[in-house]
Design brief:
By secondary structure, the protein is of the alpha/beta class. Helices cover 47% and strands 15% of the residues. It contains 8 helices and 7 strands. The protein has a 7-stranded parallel beta sheet with strand order 3-2-1-4-5-6-7, with helices on both faces. α1 links the parallel β1 and β2. α1 packs across α8. The longest helix is centred in the middle third of the chain and has 29 residues. The protein is globular and about 55 Å long.
Length: 261
């Protein structure tokens, strides 16, 4: 299917690896000019080179969501590299694992800034451009934990949940301008982050990594982990021309793992 977004300009945050990179690659394959950001230049350059080798148009900027100047840096990059914006994919790295009691004030504040405040501030700065041109796609990557809190990920469950109400409110405010705002919620997608979390859970439970992984897969109706490519394709569809009547929604990509409707 041609998603009807060839030539569109897309900014994808935290896309040096994992879920952000999966969406970036899918958008590049659809003909978008993709700008990715992340903290590691070596990884960013390799990913951009790969997208270009596959026939895509891609650039990168080294940036850290934890930096107080992140939003200004992104706005400058959008202006100078893309010349505007059609698609914004809000993605952030996951916070450290832990319980609610592990959420001290400093940790909560710092991750709130990088995972919530800067996402909202950047989106607010780019929305007027989308409204003026009568087209925009805002896609925010969160977690299945906003539906069913994930054990030992209290900080993630809390902060990503804050974006749910924001996204729904935003979607209603911009819908009449041809701008959509949706969320995509990964379940167990096989990324480096999942390997890191499984390793932490194995240590916490006193089990082997294989035992923890087998138990998690057993709880998924699809009986396997999802792939980054599957997740990226779902994200690209929500950014497509065909998805123009889909807004204010949360799409779960979890192999049927969630027990709620």
């Amino acid at each position: 299917m041609d998603l009807g977004i060839s030539g569109k300009r897309a900014l994808v945050l935290a896309a040096s690896r994992g879920l952000g990179l999966g969406i970036a690659k899918a958008l590049a394959a659809e003909g978008c000019h993709v700008l990715i950001c992340g903290r590691t230049e070596e990884k960013l350059k390799a990913n951009v080179d790969a997208m270009r080798a596959a026939g895509g148009k891609a650039d990168y900027v080294v940036a850290d969501l934890a930096d107080a100047h992140f939003v200004d840096q992104m706005l400058a990059a959008v202006h100078h590299t893309l010349g505007g914006i059609d698609i914004l994919v809000n993605n952030t790295g996951g916070p450290t694992p832990g319980t609610v009691e592990d959420m001290d004030a400093e940790k909560l504040y710092n991750f709130f800034q990088s995972m919530v405040v800067r996402v909202i501030t950047l989106t607010n700065a780019l929305v007027p451009l989308m409204k003026t041109q009568g087209f925009g796609r805002i896609l925010t990557v969160a977690s299945s934990g906003v539906f069913e809190p994930i054990p030992n990920l209290a900080l993630s469950n809390t902060l990503r949940g804050a974006l749910v109400g924001w996204n729904k409110t935003l979607s209603a405010e911009v819908a009449s301008y041809g701008v959509t705002a949706n969320m995509i919620l990964p379940g167990r997608i096989h990324t480096d982050r999942i390997d890191e979390l499984d390793g932490a859970n194995a240590k916490r439970q006193g089990k082997s990594l294989d035992e923890v992984r087998a138990a998690s897969v057993k709880a998924i109706p699809a009986q396997r982990l999802g792939t980054v490519e599957e997740f990226g394709a779902a994200g690209a569809f929500l950014c497509s021309a065909q998805a123009s009547y889909i807004t204010g929604t949360m799409l779960r990509v979890d192999g049927g793992a969630a027990k709620s409707n």
